[in-house]
Amino acid sequence: MNALPPRPRSHVVILGGGFTGAAVALHLARQPVRPSITVVEPRPFLGGGLAYSSEEPSHRVNVPASRMNLLPDEPEHFSRWLAHDGEAGRDPESQWRNGDIFPRRRVFARYVAEQLKDHLDNGTIRHVREHGLEVRRGADGWTVTTSGQSIAADILVLAMTHPSPDIPAALKPLAGARGFVADVYFADALGSIAADASVLIVGSGLTSADTVAELDRRGHRGRILAVSRHGLRSRGHPQLRGQPFGDFASTPAATALGLLENIRSTLAAADAGGVNWQSVFDQLRLQGPAIWSALTPDERTRLVRRLRAFWDVHRFRIAPQVEAVLERRHAERTYDNIAASLVASNRHGDRLAVNLRRRGERQIEALHFDVVINTTGPAHGKALQTNPVLRSLCDAELIHIDRHGLGIETALDSRAVGPEGELVPGLFVAGPLARGTFGELMGLPEVARHAQTVASQIEAQLGAQSAIEVAR
Q1: Do residues 214 and 58 make contact, with C-beta atoms less than 8 angstroms apart?
Q2: What pLDDT is attached to residue 4?
């Protein structure tokens, strides 16, 4: 009796090869029975993405290296790699006064790329350096159309992370104007800014802080004004890190207001006990899934709308090297951060005029700048319209935006949910696009764990399919 031919390996195609996509690919490649893996990513290497592809020396990881990792089960993996690589010696400024190391972002990208290298070399992972254009579902799986080919897939993973930022409505008259920077992530976006230029930065989060640090590194000494609705600047790290403090999971709050009251009382208890506020937010981050899952959909929406800005500036802290630049510039009176709303803008000769209203005031101020920089962050809510792959899936009524406007509606097993509430077989969502379901999925440790979970869920699905075929 002739033996049956070996069953062809299932093919998993991952769309997006930044940190999320690279982590899913690596965990799939480490499975005992691994599928064929293809990652569609136009950048020259996997793992960098928007965040870690920067070549700018002032752009550093915003948490200590000891808390960054590709492998959740090996918490010291990146730190050991750093020590072996000798990066601290080449970049002595990476080590802060308390001993924490904040390497340049491109260093972390190199670390991720090295973990993937053997799998790429032996063909377990294939990197297609092209743009994804369209996805179609057929009877036997999926067809991904890229800028150069069509790729058949049994399982598809959506791992795109950061769409381009949207231009605020009040700044749209400046689009295309000299001196207006719509997206700081474009190559050398700040390279032509004069040292004495007056600069308006719209936004006051991590990207805004990085922009100030880069301008300063380039020799800029002019006035910088950062504007955001709440005027909240990203906070820094404590000089001495403590253990996570508080308990938000044993009896999680059922409302956004209840959660806020719990946070305030825990912060008061921490202060009375000599514990820094960062330890409270570290606990909130760790217990984020339990907190998020305890809230009803309406309360989650209320939390996002009313408290997200306050959460972001405490949760997404800036590297101390960057914080030091902001503090110095503020002391020199060449940097300020205010709460204001944009009203209108226009070109005024060689300068850019922006009308704004400070928070709590009625009067509109007309200010003039040489440069206006948009750092409002990725337009996650518009990802389904701006990304051609996601748009094709949306047009086919296979995915839709979650009710909180954070990404794609996703089930607890990380599969996409169709507009009628049905699970879409073979379509998984990894990383920040799934945060409407899982809550905190923007920080690297959380994304790493979710990538590992998605890989395990894919392995389980493929195993179940194989068992059914054997039974037949």
Answers
A1: yes
A2: 34
The alpha carbons of the chain give a radius of gyration, in whole angstroms, of 23
Among residues 150, 152, 156, 77, the alpha carbon closest in space to that of 114 is found at 77
Kindly list the distances between the CA atom of residue 400 and the CA atoms of 381, 417, 440, in Å, as whole numbers in the listed order.
11, 8, 20
Task: Check: CB of residue 180 under 8 Å from CB of residue 20.
Answer: no
Among 75, 84, 85, residue whose Cα is nearest residue 106 = 85
How many angstroms from the chain centroid is the CA of residue 372? 24
Q: Is the CB of residue 78 less than 8 Å from the CB of residue 107? A: no
Quote the pLDDT of residue 6: 41
| pTM score over 0.85 | yes
Taking the CB of residue 3, how many other CB atoms lie within 10 A of it?
Answer: 5
Rounded to whole angstroms, the Cα distance separating 200 from 298 reads: 36
Q: What gap in Å lies between CA 429 and CA 408, rounded to an integer? A: 8
* Helices 297-315 & 277-286 angle (0-180, nearest 10): 140
pLDDT of residue 187: 79
Measure Cα distances from 263 to 45, 248, 291, 328 in Å. Answer: 41, 8, 12, 31
- DSSP at 12: E
Q: pLDDT at position 465, please?
A: 65
pLDDT of residue 5: 39
DSSP string across 305-328: HHHHHHHHHHHSPPPHHHHHHHHH
d(CA 442, CA 383): 15
| Residue segments in the chain with a per-residue pLDDT below the cut of 50 | 1-7, 470
Residue 429 has what pLDDT? 96
Give CA–CA dist 243/343, Å, rounded.
44
In angstroms, the CA 104 to CA 346 distance is: 37
For residue 287, the 8-state DSSP code is T
CA 206 to each of CA 187, 282, 318, 373: distance values in angstroms, whole numbers, following the listed order? 18, 18, 6, 14
Q: What is the DSSP letter of 66?
A: G
Find the helix or strand (DSSP H, E) in which 207 lies.
Answer: helix 206-217
- What DSSP line would sit under 239-253, residue for residue? SS-------SSSS--
Is 139 in contact with 348 (CB distance < 8 Å)? no
∠ CA(378), CA(384), CA(390), 5° rounding?
A: 115
Contact 189, 269 (CB under 8 A): no
CB atoms within 10 A of CB 468: 9
Residue 20: closest CA among 66, 56, 70, 81:
70
- Hey, what are 450's tokens? 């979710």
Q: What is the distance between the alpha carbons of residues 127 and 15, in angstroms, rounded to a whole number? A: 11
